[in-house]
Design a protein that fits this description.
This protein has one domain. Helices cover about 85% and strands about 0% of the residues. The chain contains ten helices and no strands. Helix 6 crosses helix 7 and helix 6 crosses helix 8. The protein is elongated and about 45 Å long.
Amino acid sequence: MKPIFGWLRRLKDWVEAFAQKPSAGWMLFVIAFTESSFFPIPPDVLLIALGVLLPKKAFRYALICSVGSVLGGMFGYLIGYQFFELIGQKIIALYGVQQQYEYVQSLYQENAFVSIAVAGFTPIPYKVFTIAAGVFEISFATLVCASIISRSARFFLVSGLFYLLGPKIKPFIDKYFEVLSIAFVLLLVLGFAIIKWVL
């Protein structure tokens, strides 16, 4: 386990160092955009680092993250609507959620807005829902509205925590980094499990 956590700590140090660069906001936007359509790593990692290091700008970064994520969701919709056979199928196959993707269609028939909003706020892989929304021709307005509400709520909640706690929480994160890493991975696994067994 130590080699794994050593690698994670090096990644954490890199993210924290990168968070202090002027281009951090742009990188946050790029990660948020791509994660909503095809990229596996959530933007929360960089958002948290920025919140810890620059708590006074936490809400600014939450806004950047929200805008990037919503626009990325629109791109995911485009992939599903126009380029599913070329790109979308490969993304679904990459995450091994083909059966769950197909079941999303029935969820959309019941309540597309709620389904997208839940996926946008939780660890459920959001890209599956944005791509599926395009394939199943869900109202684009529904996707955008649900995305704005759920993604903004998620990122502003995270940033609000670090705005209030600021640098005080950094020693806690440094001390319990291994435990927090495991918890984060479990949340991601839970997200996939929800798609596979609950939705």
